[in-house]
What we know:
Layout: H1 2-14, H2 25-39, H3 55-58, E1 78-84, E2 87-88, E3 101-105, H4 122-126, H5 134-142, E4 147-151, E5 158-164, E6 171-180, E7 185-191, E8 197-206, E9 211-218, E10 225-234, E11 239-247, E12 251-260, E13 266-276, E14 281-290, E15 296-306, E16 310-319, E17 326-336, E18 342-351, E19 356-365, H6 369-377, H7 382-398, H8 404-420
Parallel strand pairs: 1-5, 4-6, 5-7, 6-8, 7-9, 8-10, 9-11, 10-12, 11-13, 12-14, 13-15, 14-16, 15-17, 16-18, 17-19
Antiparallel strand pairs: 1-2, 3-4
Helix pairs in contact: 1-2, 2-5, 6-7, 7-8
Amino acid sequence: MLAQAKLDALSARIAGLHFPSTGWQGKARGHALERLTAMGLPGRRDEYWRYTDPAKLNAAHVQAKLDASDVAFQDAEALKIVFVDGVFDAAASDDLALGGVEIARLAESVTDLHWASDIYGVLEAQGQMPVERPFAVLGTAFATDGILIRVTGKANRAISIIYRSESDTSDVILHHCVKVEDGAEVTLLESGDAAARLLTVMEVDIAPAARFHHVRAQGRSHHRVVGTHIFARIGEGALFKSFTASINGVMTRNEAVLDIAGNDSVAHVAGVCVGDGGDFHHDDTIFITHAAERCESRQVYKKVLKNGATGVFQGKILVKPGAQKTDGYQISQSLLLDGDSQFLAKPELEIYADDVKCSHGSTSGAIDDTALFYLRSRGVPQRRAQSLLVLAFLAEALAEIEDEALAEDLRLRLESWLDRHEA
């Protein structure tokens, strides 16, 4: 009975979607469709959906009023790639030529064998164990477009993917692939309200000694629905860093599945979210596997919630046999600005090596009255004092961004939200 409900949800969800099965993508898409048909779409009884109702991602249709003007990183020196309601906008985008980087569109790379055939759907499929992630499979099967990025040297500019929307009923599925070759380096930015509902998959293959930086700002429209997935394979001596800032959104689920496959590598994922209202729901679900020696991982997540908002964090560190000298750190914290909001956390460690340093912690609490009194006694107005304490709470996560200008951009956006919402 439950399995049938999952299949019925899938049938309704994909009824109006086009299945592009041509060229080198056809095999991966076909395999994804087979896997998706076998698993169906999730329900609340699924272990990793018990805190987040997937109904808005399952729904056949969606509608939301969006703020099309909200784009971050506008002052960044970056090559701009613009999508409007999931459709590539050539006029608004820069030329896709960039030193040390090859860039192509998924929708235009269908006929000949492409380097992305070794990545597209491959990392996503590997990330389905031990937890099924059906919406990622949906993204592999039905993505209408995406960006394929192959980095062969040190990119002389960041790459900025800008998502805009003009339709209140836009329903977008995008799939990006990134391959960072030996010793290469790139920064990838994402920003904007892409659609009433956005589903994305990003697969990242990082070769030995390569460096990948990812910074994402997820719009500020209140009613948007978002489901994102990052699957990364990190080679020897390589660096992976990803940061996400979420402002508003009625339902957001960000998943990251990282495979630390090479010795002496580093993987950091971090994020902040701020939400106001009983219909705000934000979920970060992270799974990091240590399969090599002397590697480091960090998970740093901070949420600010008010007026009945809900935040969720599900984070796991898996240390495989032989992954000695692992250093794994996980922290998830929430600042509840009223008595109606809630933070639901499920931190996990699973360790099969004996020479490791792993820790996790999770806390929820209100603004420190003593700190607030101290600032007020020094003449700081009440609202400004609260904002300063909230920003101080978020600072540990923002510090994960190496580029100070990008971090400052996000800090100012968060401060603006606090000013508008009288935090």
